[in-house]
UniProtKB/TrEMBL annotation:
PROSITE patterns: PROKAR_LIPOPROTEIN. The keyword Signal applies. This is Sel1 repeat family protein. The keyword Signal applies. It comes from Rubricoccus marinus. Keywords: Signal.
Amino acid sequence: MKRALLLLLLPLALAACSPDLSPEAAREAAYEAEAAGDVRAALRYYKAAAEGGDLGAMQTLAEAYERGHHRARGPVTRDGEDASRYMAIVALPGQARFWRGRYERERDERAFGGDPGVLLSVAQDLDRRGSTPAERDSARAIRQRLLDAKHTPAMVGEALRTMQDDSLRAFALLEEATDLGSAQACLLQRVLVHAREGYEHVMAQQRAGIEPTTIPASMEARHIDEIEACPNIPTDRDDMGAQVVIRQLRERGTPEARTRLDSLRILGVFERHPHLDPATLS
């Protein structure tokens, strides 16, 4: 009886604690709370976003309450490491079921309406570990439908899925998605190419009998220019583009990092891209 009553009261309690923010603003506030390590505030803002119809926020809440922790996603470092953090939470009885049910109902309704972003989410859910052959077939059919429609997030996802087995097709998809204006595709393409160039630089040093070092500042400056040339990169996102590289160098604070920043300044990087100047980068 108490459990049933809690489930009935839960939506009212969530609505009462939700800040009066747009879903977009609430999600940004959640990211800021994550960065500050305040998991309670982060979940509160995710709930506000979910109440405003943000499907991703609903899924985030469902997964957090099911697992008993919230994954605060961070940018991938220049070394390829995931900077995500796992923050323990307290889940009340019924919260996981409430948000999972709400997410799936909203997802299915939007999918039947033909929303491409939601269809991609459905394909990802169907293709999860342990799915049946029929579910995987459905996921493939949905992905192909989205690819035929030139849905750029689906093109990026397909490139990631096929990169190891068919890199030529994967890069062709990223190139096409970039031409269609996808910042995500462009950034991924640049990162992969730059990683390969860095690897080739190290291997060339080894073949010459030289102790491998990091890539030259001139190469890194060119990489930054190429990343900044990607279309539609939000200038206010600190987890995208070359801002990640510059911020990591600044936060590292070692003599080598400071020397690299000085070299990039001499090479005109911060003159060409003033928003990257470590002196003003937030």
